[in-house]
Amino acid sequence: MKIAFVVPEAVPYIKTGGLGDVAGTLPVYLTKLGFNTILILPLYKTIKDKNLELELVEKGDVKIGERALPFSIYKHKEAQVYFIENDEFFLRDSPYNTKEGDYPDNYIRFAFFSKVSLDFIVKKGDIDVIHVHDWQTSILPVYKELFYPNSKEKVVLTIHNIGYQGIFPKDVLKEISIPPSLLTIDGLEFYGNVNYLKGGILFSDCVTTVSPSYAKEIQTKEYGFGLEGILRKVRRKLFGIINGIDYSYWNPKVDKFIKVNYGKDSIDNKKLENKKLLFEELNLNFPLSLPLFSLISRLVSQKGIDILIEGFDDIMKLPLNFVLLGTGDKKFEEKLMSLGEKYRSKFIPLIKFDEGLAHRIYAASDFFLMPSKFEPCGLGQMIALRYGTVPIVRRTGGLKDTIQDYHEKTNCGNGISFDEYDSFDLIKSVERGVKIFREGKSYKKIQEIGMNCDYSWDSSAKEYLNLYRRLKEE
Ligand code: ADP
Question: How far is the CA of 327 from the centre of ligand 1 (A)?
């Protein structure tokens, strides 16, 4: 059985968020389970800059709309990874957008990527399942239906975040070789526009999303972003499979980004040493004895940054310190910077993307905040558990499936969680965290339960494997 992952990002080549982690790690685990997997990515500028050893596999033009678009396909010499080159589309500083917003030609960039990948896969002839991800590759199953209706490959679409759908004006259809007959309510039409993700949902053999709770939530008006009706219709082919994290990469025992490595047995002193080193690195004179809270995230409203800012003055009244690492919406970045000025003695906002620093913050913190409005799966809370850092989360989507609220009486639970999306509940949970930290014993228990959780890819990769098998047998 052979699987092709067609993805807009994947570690270690390119990552802007959780999709990159998943798309890079799941194929590795599937390969370990004896599956043959290949990965297909756009050859972005950042990947070209890495000077990987690439060999040319194919070169040509693909006709999309009226244009003949040139492409080259390269294979990474040391891996089953293919890159599709077109410098007009991919030789840019970031994959999807600039600070000003999305690239206006994203509709053709990713239609092109999907079409070239599909042609390549069908020509190869040895692929059983094509696994596409998010709106960027959702046009692939539509193309498959149009251009290769009898080809044997099954298509699985994974939705990592339904908030991003690839919605474009209807005029783009002609430019991407999709007939107007598909611009209907049962096709790609979406309030007068074209919706790529809707196409993917309709034309894939199976749709998955990244946690069982999120699979249910997206069928409701509150979380479906307008696609809830269509998802309810196709619910028989919709499944939720929780993401894992790469346990060999996210491992405080061997993590190369942290100076003082630790495991379950050495957590007490070593975590404190990590805190001390982080404060030195960031030039902070925060007291070591206070609990350190952290948040590492894209700074967008999905992540609960609004309620954090709303409750910030109250949170700052509590005996704690706070480190925040993130980039995103300008309004949030600016507000957090000004809060950084105001609360200089206990809060530091770090407005950048920095992988190494993220590891050091996970290792140094006592609590990790994820007050998300919605969260398809979330990786931050699982990483936090792995580093003995207690997650404080809003009970939604994947956060609900992975974090159980701690109960003093039963001594069960791996974190702190709250239900309502408002600053009051967030403040109360932070307050609870501070109290538990002070008491010591319960804090240690939560930490221990968290570190004993297993959110590695092992079991989730097996669920995907079963799904591919079922599809092949159909
Ligand atoms: P999403 O995919 O919605 O952004 P996830 O929680 O699924 O959220 O994954 C986010 C990933 O990106 C985690 O690995 C997190 O550590 C990382 N991350 C987010 N922001 C930053 C940042 N500014 N610097 C370094 N890593 C970050």
Answer: 10
